[in-house]
C-alpha cells in the first residue's frame, strides 16, 4: 500500500540582503535608510496594515507627548506648520501613511513570523513565516533587523482572584474611549501616561474613577518636556533635571498628600536609568485634587464578583477594571538566537547608545525607549553599519 500523501503547504524560499520584521515606524524608517543606500530589504508584518499599534491599539484621545520637531522620520520633509506642536494620533498616522507612499515602501503583510535563526554554516539568517491560508515561506538574508517593537503583546499582571471578577476587564490596547462607562465605578490599574490619560477620559465621560498608584513617578506638562529637550542641546542632563524638577514642583506643589510621590532622580535621569517615562499631565492631576479621581494603593486580591481588596486592607466595589499595564516584547517567542542581541525579557542586552547592534548580523530598531527620535537614530545607525559590513565583505 502506498504511503499517504503529505498535504503540508508548499514552502517558498526568498533571498534578500536584509529582512526587517515589523512595519511600524521603526521598520519603515530602517527600510527607507537601507533603500537610500541601494540595499535590498524585505519587511515582514503580521498585520494587514503598517503602523498597526497606532491604528488598531491606541485610544482615541491619544496625542504625542513630544513636540513634532522631535518626531521626524529619516528623509521625510519637515512637519507642516499647520500641524499643532503635539500631534494627535490621527495626525501622526497620516504622517506615517504619507511616509509609506512617498518612499514607496511595500511591506509584505499578513506574514506571521514563526522562527528566525542564524545558520553558522552559511552565515545567513533563516526566517520562517506563515502567510494566508497556512502557506509557509522562508526568507534567507545576510542581515536581520528586529523592528517588532517593545509593545509586542499586552501585559496583564497576575492578580489573586481575578478569574472570579464579574465585571468588565479590558487592556488599554482594547480601550477606545469612555463612552458606555457613565455612572460606573472603574478601576484603572497602571499610573503611566496611558493609565492617567484613560482615567481622565473615563472621568470626563461620567465614570467614577480610581487609579492604582504603587511606585513614585514624575508629573510634568508637555511644555516642561519640550523645554527640557531644548535645553539638553546646550546643558548637561543633571542641570536640565534640576530646572525641570523645580518648575514642576512650583507648578504642582506637594502631591504626596494625594498618594503621588516623586523619585529622587530627576525626570530625564530617571527615564535614562530606570526606563520610566514621566507622566505628561493633561488634566488628570486637577481631577485628583478635586476628588473626582481617587488614588488607591496596589491591589492585594479580588474578592467575589466585584470586590477589590487593596494593599492597605480597604475594599471597594468596581464595575470594570482597565489594565493600563503596558506591553511586553514578543521577539523571544520566535527569535531562536535571541541572545545575540536580547536578554531574557526580549529587550536589548547592550545599554543605549549601543543597544541597536548584536552579533552575526542582527540588529534591533525601536527599542531605545527614546520615541520617534530614537527610532530615527536607530534606523540611520543600522543602515550605515550594514553598508560598512557589505563593503568590507566585497
Automatic annotation (TrEMBL):
GO terms of biological process kind: auxin biosynthetic process
Gene3D superfamilies (UniProt xref): FAD/NAD(P)-binding domain (3.50.50.60)
Keyword Metal-binding assigned: no
Signal peptide start and end residues: none
Entry EC number(s): 1.14.13.168
Molecular-function annotations in GO: flavin adenine dinucleotide binding; indole-3-pyruvate monooxygenase activity
Alphabetized UniProt keyword annotations: Auxin biosynthesis, FAD, Flavoprotein, NADP, Oxidoreductase
The keyword Mitochondrion is annotated on this UniProt entry: no
Catalytic activity: indole-3-pyruvate + NADPH + O2 + H(+) = (indol-3-yl)acetate + CO2 + NADP(+) + H2O
Origin: domain of life: Eukaryota
Protein name (database record): indole-3-pyruvate monooxygenase
Organism name: Linum trigynum
Amino acid at each position: 500500500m502506498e504511503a499517504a500523501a503529505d498535504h503540508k503547504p508548499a514552502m517558498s524560499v526568498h533571498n534578500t540582503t536584509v529582512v526587517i520584521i515589523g512595519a511600524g515606524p521603526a521598520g519603515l524608517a530602517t527600510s527607507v535608510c537601507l533603500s537610500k543606500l541601494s540595499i535590498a530589504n524585505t519587511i515582514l508584518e503580521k498585520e494587514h496594515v503598517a503602523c498597526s499599534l497606532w491604528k488598531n491599539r491606541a485610544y482615541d484621545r491619544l496625542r504625542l507627548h513630544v513636540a513634532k520637531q522631535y518626531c521626524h522620520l529619516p528623509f521625510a520633509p519637515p512637519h507642516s506648520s499647520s500641524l499643532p506642536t503635539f500631534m494627535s494620533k490621527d495626525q501622526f498616522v497620516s504622517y506615517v501613511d504619507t511616509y509609506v507612499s512617498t518612499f514607496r515602501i511595500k511591506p509584505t503583510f499578513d506574514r506571521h513570523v514563526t522562527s528566525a535563526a542564524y545558520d553558522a554554516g552559511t552565515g545567513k539568517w533563516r526566517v520562517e513565516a506563515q502567510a494566508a491560508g497556512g502557506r509557509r515561506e522562508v526568507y534567507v538574508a545576510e542581515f536581520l533587523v528586529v523592528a517588532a517593537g517593545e509593545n509586542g503583546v499586552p501585559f496583564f499582571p497576575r492578580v489573586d482572584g481575578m478569574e472570579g471578577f464579574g465585571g468588565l476587564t479590558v487592556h488599554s490596547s482594547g480601550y477606545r474611549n469612555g463612552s458606555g462607562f457613565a455612572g460606573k465605578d472603574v478601576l484603572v490599574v497602571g499610573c503611566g501616561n496611558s493609565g492617567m490619560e484613560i482615567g481622565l477620559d473615563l472621568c470626563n465621560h461620567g465614570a467614577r474613577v480610581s487609579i492604582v498608584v504603587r511606585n513614585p513617578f514624575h508629573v510634568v506638562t508637555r511644555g516642561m518636556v519640550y523645554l527640557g529637550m531644548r535645553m539638553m542641546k546646550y546643558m548637561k542632563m543633571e542641570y536640565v533635571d534640576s530646572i525641570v524638577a523645580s518648575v514642576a514642583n512650583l507648578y504642582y506643589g506637594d502631591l504626596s498628600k494625594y498618594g503621588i510621590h516623586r523619585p529622587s532622580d530627576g525626570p530625564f535621569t530617571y527615564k535614562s536609568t530606570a526606563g520610566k517615562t514621566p507622566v505628561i499631565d493633561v488634566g488628570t492631576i486637577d481631577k485628583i485634587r478635586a476628588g473626582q479621581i481617587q488614588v488607591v494603593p496596589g491591589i492585594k486580591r479580588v474578592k467575589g464578583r466585584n470586590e477589590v481588596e487593596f494593599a492597605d486592607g480597604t475594599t471597594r466595589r468596581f464595575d470594570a477594571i482597565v489594565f493600563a499595564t503596558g506591553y511586553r516584547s514578543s521577539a523571544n517567542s520566535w527569535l531562536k538566537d535571541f541572545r545575540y542581541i536580547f536578554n531574557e525579557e526580549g529587550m536589548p542586552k547592550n545599554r543605549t547608545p549601543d543597544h541597536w547592534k548584536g552579533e552575526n548580523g542582527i540588529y534591533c530598531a525601536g527599542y531605545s525607549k527614546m520615541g520617534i527620535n530614537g527610532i530615527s537614530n536607530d534606523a540611520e545607525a543600522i543602515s550605515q553599519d550594514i553598508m560598512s559590513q557589505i563593503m568590507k565583505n566585497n
